[in-house]
DNA sequence: GGATGCGGGGACAGCGCTGTCATTCAGTCC
DNA sequence: GGACTGAATGACAGCGCTGTCCCCGCATCC
């Protein structure tokens, strides 16, 4: 009970340790009877193989690292948490384990990180999340050491994706496009937008979706578009800038939920009723999104699924199955809650609205 | 560059591998010059020891597991995330690594979990968070296998703390007591309370703090106390029950922030202005607490610190230093934001309020 | 002078697995 | 019939470290 080894199992099953190893690793050469005998011994001894020994002698470590750039205890961290949960689930299913590493916001000592990951831990793969997943230095180092990596919501769009790892994402363009259309369907035309972090590709894609949905390539009133960094605080000034205009937008679409919450907060302080006088929408469907007042209309990404897929990819790849895609795109879905509604004075801004709703394309 | 081993270092430094090992592990027997020579070789080769090899041959694995019972993607998960960040920081400082394991909400197959932790991973310690840290079965299994464990915010109060591991907490009683007094200082007497999860000791302690502060052992109008489970959803009915009373409380103190947010949400839907007609307070200072409208008055716990302390304890303990305390209590602090203010009609409820503010004790 | 102690350092045997290669025993083929 | 094939299994050598034991040389002590 204390600590059974493979030797104990071999003795009990009356086979060699190599055969035990084969059975445990699902290798082909083993007769059904032998297999059964070994499994029985394993069960009776309550045997669990040692990860260290397996890692030391074999080529797999059964370890996956999730690297994020922590530091800011922002609400958006829940994104990481959920991704992590998905990854852990997939790990457990595959006999793997998840290591979590943070790298300090400003720190760029990627060398040490990579060395630790590759040399010390010998992880079988690394899951990178924004903005780390778009750092060329980190990616280069990782690639140089031959690390398998999966990038969640990466910047590069397949084309230039020079074996910097596999990507996982949703269609940010479509998500933003659809949300914008949702607002337009409700009658909004004066829709403000708060941009995401300029270094993060999802930000650009979301903005493009918004622009195309609203203006369809036409002229763009820049006053409607304000800069943000995906964080709550970064969106406060943007929201103010939008809401203090004489002709205030009837809706604000923030590039993510954290920033949408900032809009809610500013509106609250300015005494602007939501959704009465202002509709607000975001993207991400953070757990907090359904908890704020009013609950936020947003776009849900299957974050847990994505985390699980990332881990599974690494597991399969290490096991020899090579996926030949560069990127997997997950479905998103509109979650309409109470923060959006038709604008108060439907035709008041008619002069500004477009003649007709452009077609989807 | 590719993968230096201890042999390479030994060769370059012109010493035996054992000496390299000694230097790297800070063992005493090594002259300063030798030490310097070895370190130089390590640097020049960019050497990093293999964790697996160390774990396999030595008695430490340099791994710490953080076990939480995931599943619900509640806002309160940020608590876990922050704890994790603290733990990771401490790990990095000590050359350790943090593994995160979730156990499904309902699952009680602790046997397999413990086996994995102890046998497969051979972690040097386990950090347990509520409600897992209070599960007797899990604790017994862990103790049986001799695992070092640190329980965050555990139930047992030192006394009965039968070597079930070290504990980390804040003084929940005082935190609740002080928050209640804060509300009373503002003039509130009719203060509702939403209880935490009955299986979690912090819940009981917080309730005791509230009761003692408000009633000082006197009669307790039970209508003021409603059950909750620490989750947002669980507090919705409680908040409704409190706010639909003819004589509505002028303040509601929820046993944690998630539930306080539920109060905010219900008040919003009922059209009760906060803090105008109702003050709301919580405990935890979740990141979301400062983001909701209005920002929540709450009690901050140094969660990251606590996570770091937990990891450090395990690291030190494994290194031989035995801490002889059973529990470490961290300081908390009141964070007064905008969700609390003096009640609208100061003396309206005088008939119900206590004659005088009882003394602190 | 021999016993003793101690700082400094090496030899060596594993830790518990997996990879590689060898071996055995049926069947198969011409 | 003898060489050949392939499935099932075992022998054995590490993987890269740490723990244990041992050795050397020098100072100390009666």
From TrEMBL, chains A, B:
Gene3D superfamilies: 3.40.50.2300, lambda repressor-like DNA-binding domains
Residues annotated as domain HTH lacI-type: 4-58
SMART domains the record matches: HTH_LACI
Pfam families in the record: LacI, Peripla_BP_3
Alphabetized GO MF terms: DNA-binding transcription factor activity; transcription cis-regulatory region binding
InterPro entries in UniProt: HTH_LacI, LacI/GalR-like_sensor, Lambda_DNA-bd_dom_sf, Peripla_BP_I
Keywords for the protein's UniProt record, in alphabetical order: DNA-binding, Transcription, Transcription regulation
Keyword DNA-binding tagged: yes
CDD domains in alphabetical order: HTH_LacI, PBP1_SalR
Protein's UniProt keywords contain Hydrolase: no
UniProt-recorded name of the protein: LacI family transcriptional regulator
UniProt source species: Nitrospirillum iridis
């Amino acid at each position: 009970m204390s600590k059974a080894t493979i030797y104990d199992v071999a003795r009990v099953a009356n086979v060699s340790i190599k055969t035990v190893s084969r059975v445990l690793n699902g290798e082909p050469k083993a007769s059904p009877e032998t297999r059964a005998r070994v499994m029985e011994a394993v069960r009776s001894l309550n045997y669990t193989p040692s990860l260290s020994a397996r890692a030391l002698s074999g080529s797999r470590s059964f370890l996956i690292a999730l690297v994020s750039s922590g530091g800011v205890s922002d609400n958006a961290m829940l994104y990481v948490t959920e991704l992590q949960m998905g990854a852990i689930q997939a790990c457990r299913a595959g006999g793997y384990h998840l290591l979590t590493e943070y790298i300090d916001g400003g720190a760029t000592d990627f060398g040490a990180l990579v060395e630790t990951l590759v040399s010390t831990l010998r992880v079988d793969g690394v899951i990178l999340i924004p903005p780390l997943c778009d750092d060329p230095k980190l990616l280069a180092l990782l690639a140089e050491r031959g690390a398998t990596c999966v990038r969640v919501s990466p910047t590069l769009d397949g084309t230039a994706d020079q074996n910097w790892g596999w990507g996982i994402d949703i269609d940010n363009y479509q998500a933003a496009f659809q949300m914008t259309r949702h607002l337009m369907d409700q009658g909004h035309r004066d829709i403000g937008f708060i941009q995401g972090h300029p270094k993060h590709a999802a930000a650009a894609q979301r903005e493009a979706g918004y622009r195309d949905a609203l203006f369809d390539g036409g002229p763009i009133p820049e006053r409607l578009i304000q800069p943000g960094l995906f964080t709550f605080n970064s969106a406060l000034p943007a929201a103010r800038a939008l809401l203090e205009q004489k002709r205030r937008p009837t809706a604000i679409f923030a590039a993510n939920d954290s920033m949408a919450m900032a809009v809610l907060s500013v509106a609250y302080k300015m005494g602007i009723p939501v959704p009465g006088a202002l509709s607000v929408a975001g993207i991400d469907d953070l757990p907090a999104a359904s908890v704020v007042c009013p609950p936020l209309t947003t776009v849900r990404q299957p974050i847990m699924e994505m985390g699980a897929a990332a881990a599974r990819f690494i597991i399969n790849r290490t096991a020899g199955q090579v996926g030949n895609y560069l990127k997997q795109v997950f479905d998103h879905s509109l979650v309409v809650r109470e923060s959006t509604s038709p604008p108060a004075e439907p035709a008041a801004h008619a002069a500004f609205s477009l003649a007709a709703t452009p077609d989807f394309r």
